[in-house]
Amino acid sequence: MGNKKYDRREKTVLKRKDSSAPRGKNNTLKTQETIELTKIKQGECVQDYEDENFETSVAKLTFPKVLVTTSRRASSYSIRFAKDLESVFPNSEFNERGSLDDLESLVRQASSLAFTHIMIVEEHAKIPIGLTVVSLPSGPCFLFKLSSVKLAKDIKNHGKCSSHSPELILNNFHTGIGKLVGKFLTTLFPKPEFNGRQVVTFHNQRDFIFFRRHRYVFDGNEKRHVRTQEIGPQFTMKLKKISKSLFDENLCVFDSNFIKEQKKITSSESSRSINNKIFIN
Fold this sequence. Notes:
It contains eight helices and ten strands. By secondary structure, it is of the alpha/beta class.
């Protein structure tokens, strides 16, 4: 008699080498996100970019005045992050959102006070998970997913910011949607004040936008040596939605809708691990 354990191993190897053996599809979260992102890129984002009226509405934005706020009943961490964002954008103001303030009344109030943009920090489980940026009074709207958030005070040896308008660096915004996002980001900053020695960087890599803020430091008696010192905060954005109108029914702007979306992603992550075990075995 042969070794049963050896026979089972041999059959397993032969089965793996057989190319005709049917294989199932690994329906992972990464695959679902790739399909969703492809639909966004090929769908309404491209249509919005090709729409001349949409580009004109972005180009007409004047000297920015940004209202920074949070979702309802925000945690202290999200409030501190929103205050860090207030220091990033010149001529901006932080206003803590009340529990009864709906989005429509908030937009009307901001428009009456001559704000050009409103920036809403969304949170779930007391962690910032989303950033909605709206051009007032009626759009366009950009919805970003947030990750890797780090407050300025948590950065080791961080520098102090000033009220000067920073220089702006945009890296790898070459595609159609990338140019649109880059153009919109520039509307949040006025002309740079070089004597402030501050620079803000948005670096796009594989659809993730990394944000950093630094200041120039001159060392030595003759100030010939130059180095950079990070000011903060740090965070990573990923574009989730673009729309021409603020109250477009297809745009997930309201707090409850975005939180529900994050809960679905969390539940799909747990099911992904189960699917992987079944597929591997």
